[in-house]
Amino acid sequence: MAAVRQGSSSSVLSSVPLQILFFLDGIYYVFYFLAALLMIIYKSQIFTYPYSLLTLDLVLLFFMALLEVIRLYFGTKGNLREEEAPLGISLGITVGSVLLSVYFLVWQTYILRADVIINVVLLVAYGLEGILQIIAIAAFVS
């Protein structure tokens, strides 16, 4: 049952495109995580992968997965409930996720063409979500 916000009209302000993008990004991130994990395992077998850097890449990948779950939870919650705070938290976490994606795109120990492709797709999704989140927050505030 949807609650009507006090002091506002009964019109729905939630962003359907943003909600669809959150859903698709959740599905894509599962693919991204598995692909990145398998590529790290592959690179550790094929190349001389220093143990400390292998550990760093794995820890950052798992940390990124944790951030992604939290980001999608708050983003979905904020959009569906038409609340600025959870959507703002999600937007802030998106910045951290973007930085981690750039790490895997540019500064990772070994970078394969597949790494570039999956990270560019992820960064495009983050960019679209960020724009739609800002628009949704502006709609919720007004």
From TrEMBL:
InterPro entries: Uncharacterised_TM-17 (IPR019184). One of its GO terms (biological process) is non-motile cilium assembly. One of its GO terms (cellular component) is ciliary transition zone. Its main location: other. It is found in: Cell projection, Cilium; Membrane. Pfam families: Transmemb_17. This is Transmembrane protein 80. The chain crosses the membrane at residues 20-42, 54-74, 86-106, 118-141. It comes from the Eukaryota. Keywords: Cell projection, Membrane, Transmembrane, Transmembrane helix. It comes from Pantherophis guttatus. It is a multi-pass membrane protein.
